[in-house]
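Work through this protein:
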Amino acid sequence: MPEDNIEHIDFNALNKKAIAQPLVSHIYTADPSAHYFNGKIYIYPSHDIDGGEAFDDLGSHFAMEDYHVISMDTIDSEAVDNGLALHVKDVAWAEKQMWAPDAAHKDGKYYLFFPAKGYDGIFKIGVAISNSPTGPFTPQPEAIKGSFSIDPAVFEDEDGSYYMYFGGLWGGQLQRWRTGTFNAQQPDSPTAHLPEDDEVSLMPKVAKMTDDLLEFVEAPKDIMILDENGQPILAGDNDRRFFEAAWLHKHNGKYYFSYSTGDTHFICYAMGDSPYGPFTYKGIILEPVVGWTSHHSICKVEEKWYLFYHDSSLSKGVTHLRSVKVSELIHDDSGLISPLKPYKE
């Protein structure tokens, strides 16, 4: 339900049909990375503002400049805004666009991972540390060496290893790194340097983290997303190919890689046997929401799984003013995920 259709929407009726309501309504929040730390739910979203930028396919109107952590005692309790956790002005290397973050916990410390544009106009991924899951977070003086693009998601495996998944097309610049170095040509084009439709799609990246969670132990690798025949998803397969919003969760010994298809507005997933993949496409998790973007996380709280996501219903369809929501997520007996429709028929 992208924004070109919104003039036909009765938002009061739509919000009554929605399967979930915004967790907070005093600020706009998006891209929720949810975690269950020490018996409590913590959500690390983007903080949407209207920065006055013109709308474009590079995402310039997504002019976010800080982060707030949202916490919930239980899945049904009130969501609490814990105030400013990190501001771009406190990050030495970052100029603007504090986009979708994630967090991790290790040895009593909490780590906030975030993409931002440096003063050279190139996205990198930074990390900031706190003794509290709600911050405030103290950023490292430089971005993670070898990091690029957007949408970091950090997964802690059962053996104590941590992996970062990342990448995003168009304004997320992943296509500009195809040769291993940043391609600055045609800077105003969001789609320059993309593969042709019949070529293998651009794949998300993964890198194992160092023990202190501050760097990569290896050069980022491609994650292969395969179709039902074991072939890589092609760039023209817009309903299934990776666009942004990488996330990994593990259920009954299987790894689930989920992501957004961007311009077709689906949240999809693929399954595999290793945190490095390959992952075989399995289906849709979330049908399109109101607003252009779709971005999610999947978190287990006690014995149930939940999908945290956003839409633009509270702002009546303004694509860059979004609100975080949550709905229960069901894995069936075979491990497949039951798709969600964000608005009841």
